[in-house]
Amino acid sequence: MAKKIILDLDTGIDDALALAYALGSEELDLIGVTATYGNVLVEDGARNDLALLELFGRSDIPVFVGESHALSRDGFEVLEISAFIHGKNGIGEAQIPDAQANVQEQSAVDFLIESVERYGDELVIVPTGAMTNIATAMQRSPEFAERAHIVFMGGALTVPGNVSPWAEANINQDPEAADYVVRHGKDVTMIGLDVTLQTLLTYEETKQWRAFDTPAGTALADATDFYITAYDTVAPHLGGCGLHDPLAVAVAVDPSLVDLLPINLKVDTEGPTRGRTIGDETRLNDPQKTANVAVGVQVERFLEELMKRIGRVARGEAVAAR
Ligand code: BDR
Ligand code: CA
Fold first, then answer.
1. Which CATH number does the domain housing residue 43 bear?
2. Is 153 a pocket residue for ligand 1 (Cβ < 6 Å)?
3. What is the per-residue pLDDT across 230-245, written as a single tens digit (0 to 9) for each?
């Protein structure tokens, strides 16, 4: 039976690739997309989710709007660096028409809580933006915190951050939320820069999507080329764009793609290291570890899976169950 999955996205170019990866995976049943903020405002993220789902032929998948700003703030504005990397519209200025479908009336947080109540161990939640929706669900429902299986993209344990020497972008959006999630969640897997910056895509691969000459293939190639060009400016030593968010989905499908370090995590919320993901010294001797951090990745195998799965979607053949 296919594993149920909810993607919590701030769409975002690599979020769009994560969505395509999920839709190209027959092991997965994508039961909904919850929108968060980060690369874009939450409402723009939800718009992109709906538009991409329609483009990929899966407008049957519902989209829920989440929290619009961090727990400790009363508003949110897109950072200049986010707009530079993902474009003002979040999808690299790729022109994808608005979807016919609308967002759901139910809130993202209520949908998350209800889904964990209903599906328990059959469900995995993959957040790839600010973790405010997930923390809010945990604060409202201790059962959610207890039972949810979470594989998130964010953080940096063994390498520096990408918005400061300490902080990775998703954690930096809402360090209090991320801290709440890693302290209260019982099964949390962190896919951070330690591994995602080892997995890179180049124009060679996007050329293959473009060659399909389909609306989905062209949009994926246009958006990703924008992203690669931005990476060439901010991190030319890498030689490609980081496949952050799709790697988190890939690990939700197949954890053997990464080497996991069991650890009790915390996030610094004060001082110059605000946003740092690190071991919680107060739980160092607790034999029960509530988090696993990916510290190694099978790069070639992941890239093959990514090209196979996103290739299906780019050809117009999304296969995820429903
Ligand atoms: C993360 O930040 C966002 O810009 C990307 O979509 C990804 O989720 C990488 O640090
Ligand atoms: Ca993201």
1. 3.90.245.10
2. yes
3. 999 999 999 999 999 9
- First-residue to last-residue Cα distance in the chain: 11
Q: Is 194 in the pocket of ligand 1 (CB under 6 A)?
A: no
Decide: helix, strand or coil at residue 123: strand
Pairing of strands 200-201, 187-191: unpaired
Tokens 């195998």 belong to 301
Mutation to probe ligand 1, out of 10, 37, 162 (largest number of atoms < 8 A from CB): 10
Q: Is the CB of 224 under 6 A from ligand 1?
A: no
* Enzyme catalytic residues: 10, 244
Q: How confident is the model at residue 275 (pLDDT cuts 50, 70, 90)?
A: very high
Which three-class secondary structure state does DSSP give residue 294? strand
Pocket test for ligand 1, best of 153, 163, 193 (most atoms within 8 A of CB): 153
**Ligand 1 within 6 A of CB of 14:** yes
For residue 68, give the amino acid letter: S
The answer, yes or no, to whether residue 188 has pLDDT greater than 80, is: yes
For the Cβ of 169 lying below 6 angstroms from any atom of ligand 1, the answer is yes
Residue 319 lies in a domain: no
169 CA distance to ligand 1 centroid (A)?
Answer: 6
Q: Total structural domains in the chain?
A: 1
Taken as a whole, the chain contains a residue count of 322
Looking at the domain assignment, is residue 209 inside a domain?
A: yes
- Structural domain includes residue 321: no
Ligand 2 centroid from CA 307, angstroms: 19
Supply the range of the domain harboring residue 63: 3-314
For the residues 314-321, what does the mean pLDDT come to? 84
Task: Give the residue among 197, 146, 185 at the shortest CA–CA distance from 266.
Answer: 185
Q: Of the candidates 147, 109, 157, 106, which has an alpha carbon nearest to the alpha carbon of residue 8?
A: 109
| Residue 66 in domain | yes
